[in-house]
Structure formats: structure tokens, C-alpha cells
């Protein structure tokens, strides 16, 4: 089966590195025009340069995803520049780890409210021709998350919101799904840092993955491309764990 997203217009929040960038690459390689946003200009510009190699329209916008007005502006400007929106990927994370005000604020504002706000801004455009929304959650939301209480709790909320949105928007031909990655390794990411600075944690997590290795961003990207395509035309309200059996 061939994933074909030719003519589709996709937004990827948090698309300058790691999972977000891999998703953007997969969408662009399947024919989609892509708009990415992130907070830091340098990595964002580099990501845009890479994505343009697919020969598609690429937009890159600096955006603080804790800022409601900035999110609305990014979505609306993208819709104007690309002529509409067909796909919205909510990937950004504040990685709230500590069970205190700062940890909860980071997760609530970025992992949850940025997602909600992006959807609210994009829905009027998605309604015009149907479309697909994909939220990136985590297997941390499937059960207890002792190391990262706010992160796990908010990622669980994202899974529930996915179901609510899917039911709400099904009649408007908008599908809403969620991907729950396991531990994903990429240069500069959480597990790259742990490998260098916290080998005990790195080794413990690796030992708990039945497949014997960390996942790659591209393995998340391919699932996102499938869910965005017509091949998944009757898939909505689902959370798909992509984790090599880690959550088992």
C-alpha cells in the first residue's frame, strides 16, 4: 500500500527536531505541504532546510506554544499561505517532570492547552473538506508515572480528549487519533542525554523494552503518515502505542 498525501496541507507543532521533525519528513515525502513551528529559530531554520529537499512547500514559524495568541496566529497564517488545512499534528511537550507548580504548569500549558488551542484554531479550516488530527501522547499516560507525575497525568488526559474529539467531530468528517510513543532515542533527546549522564536509568529503561532497543522518531513518523492518509479513513478515536512492547 502506498501512502499518498499529495495536495494535503499539514501543520506540525513542535516540528523542529526529534519526533516532530520525523513526522514532518514522512508527511512531506508522501506529498504533503508542511508548516512547522517551534520556539527556537536556529533548529527551526535547519529543519525547514531539510524538509525542502522533498520538493514540497515548507513553512517554518517561531511560536511560543504557551502563548494562546501565537498559536492562533500560526494556524491562521498557515491556512492562508497554504490555502487551507488538512492535517494537524500536536507534538510539542513541556516535559513536566516534577510534582510541583512548575512541573504541572509546563505539562498543562504545552502538552494539553497548546493542543486544545491549536485544535480550536484549526477546526474551522478542517471542517471545509474533512481532515485528520493526531495528538502525540506517551505510554507514560497508560499507567503510573512515578518519575514524571505531571507528564503522565496530562498525557492520559490527551488520550481521553482524543476520544471526546473523535466523537464530536465524526459527523464533520474529521478524524482524531493519538499516538503513544515508548522511549524514543535521537541525538539531543532525553535518552541521548540519559545515556551520557544517567547510565543507570538508561540501562534500566532499555532492559524493560521487550524488543531490545529504543525506538526511532521515524517509526513514529510512519504511523502518523498512515493515520493522516486515506488508508486510515475509518480509524478515529484511537490511541496507538508505538513502543516495541514496552507498555506490556
Automatic annotation (TrEMBL):
Signal peptide: none annotated. GO terms for molecular function: oxidoreductase activity. Keywords: Oxidoreductase. Pfam families: adh_short_C2 (PF13561). Belongs to the short-chain dehydrogenases/reductases (SDR) family. PANTHER family: 3-PHENYLPROPIONATE-DIHYDRODIOL_CINNAMIC ACID-DIHYDRODIOL DEHYDROGENASE, DEHYDROGENASE/REDUCTASE (SDR FAMILY) MEMBER 4. This is SDR family oxidoreductase.
